[in-house]
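Repro case for the chain-ordering regression, as requested:
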Amino acid sequence: MKTVDLSTATVRELNQALHDEARQLSERAWTVTHPAGKHNIACGIDQTLNVDIQGHAGYYCAGMNKKADITVHGNVGVGVAENMMSGSVRVKGSASQSAGATAHGGILIIEGDAGARCGISMKGADIVVKGNIGHMSCFMGQAGRLVVCGDAGDNLGDSLYEVHIYIKGKVKSLGSDCVEKEMRAEHLAELKGLLEKAGFNEDPASFRRYGSARELYNFKVDNAAAY
Amino acid sequence: MSNSSYLLRESATFDRLAIQEIQRAAETGIYDIRGGGTKRRVPHFDDLLLLGASISRYPLEGYREKCGTDVVLGTRFAKKPLHLKIPITIAGMSFGSLSAQAKEALGRGASIVGTSTTTGDGGMTPEERGQSKQLVYQYLPSRYGMNPDDLRKGDAIEVVLGQGAKPGGGGMLLGMKVTERVAGMRTLPVGIDQRSACRHPDWTGPDDLAIKIAELREITDWEKPIYVKIGATRTYYDVKLAVKAGADVIVLDGMQGGTAATQEVFIEHVGIPILPAIPLAVQALQEMGMHRKVQLIVSGGIRNGADVAKAMALGADAVSIGTAALIALGDNHPSLDPELRKIGSAAGFYDDWQDGKDPAGITTQDPELSKRLDPVLAGRRLANYLRVLVLEAQTMARACGKSHLRNLDTEDLVALSVEAAAMARVPLAGTSWIPGQTAF
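-- result from build under test --
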């Protein structure tokens, strides 16, 4: 176990050490203490490391993560796990806006709430939120799965492509081209797997499924009012 | 023409083009989309002249004395700045809007003469990386194809906030160009009209941008220069904010800069020409004490070596070309005229780059059309053209007594019109008057 104390070390020193470790692979388990909301903690990792962040993190924590399993024992700022490629990020607290933005792979688990634009432009990752999510979540979501055990804010899934969205609570409003869809057996199985992976004890049958109506995939002048 | 038609008077307001556009809109119900930059006449480098040496200045011998052309980009923070042999780079253009052959040719041509080329929306192709000795990786709002491996493979990172043809607008790639390969790289269904976001998904203002730039530096261990590209609009403020956010290089694109597919009304009515934008950027940099420390690359309507020399005399460290590079590859070549006429255009006029029917094999994803472009030959044509730009710019610089292109400055320039003098902030020829700066 390697420990980096951010009350004495810089984020640059931490990230460089993590990147070097990705090449050397002598120590897989890392603990970061006193993060104090600093930005860009543990971003750009490209190896199967375990990183435990003991406190709150700022913007872009675990940005572009590949392979690593990262846990934040606190809240996170904007863009946690943005553009993640693989691995996992678990936030024990809540997340600010744009959580998991453009993420291609891996799983982002948020045990609290997530702010606006959760899963914006997501491209294949899985995002599972125990609490609520804010407005414009999954805007232009392209691929992947978004699971929310609480409520969703305004304009969920606006201009959605192919993300599967599962919401247990209320949806304040749906965005353009996002519609409720039938929950079939394969979706219940998919949702069950995601909830189990996240460790959330929820009944998949209590969720509703949302997806793209695919009406805006090709521009038609008759749809102009939707934009 | 009969005597009666000889007396017909065309309206200056409702001229034939305006009437044609109203009729087209009424028939189709959709705005016109095209490629390229503005076609209207705007004050440009043609409205400036260079002052060659005579008695008060000492020229350099054109065939003997050296005139340097190299430029180093990204000296502010990056561990590995880009050292280019010539101050003319290839602008970002996507695989998707362009064929893989065209992207490869751009890389080949740029590499022959020692300059950089740039990816575009949709990510990095192996063909492009393989043939580009120095490749700038664009970081765009859509993040299509964005991944940390390619980010690290780039020699610099260009955070794109806008482009001159459509500042404030996102991108589009119409369904006919969204082939299986293009769709796969962008994680999208095949054949859809693909939209590219107009703003980044995970930051909203300049303070956030500073953190985003820091993240990109962290991921790449502070090795890569970070460029920030902006479309020319509120240039003075945008440049100040980009510098404050930590940019190593500013890329400034005027409204003459091309696009692969944008609404005609957007291209023609939003943004400002590159001529007034350069002095605004230079002023911002100078006030911050960052001129020449944060390098300035300008683009939008660069056609010849005189344009290069004039842009640099106004304070740019380098220029970038897009449309001119495509023409050098073979776009709009006269030999294509019969085929262009079949699709309703003509050589010298073709701008339907969004349609994917380009007989030159450049702005297309059609495999048969793409095959027509030989990347090796097209790359050589681009290299030839770039060499001519450099030779011409050197000729101008030597005539002004400058031993390096970077030594050109505003004292080497005068303007031919009051408008150009005001915009470029150089004297009207034959006077010492700079409108807006000095008393008449």
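Ordering looks correct now. Chain A has a mean pLDDT of 96.
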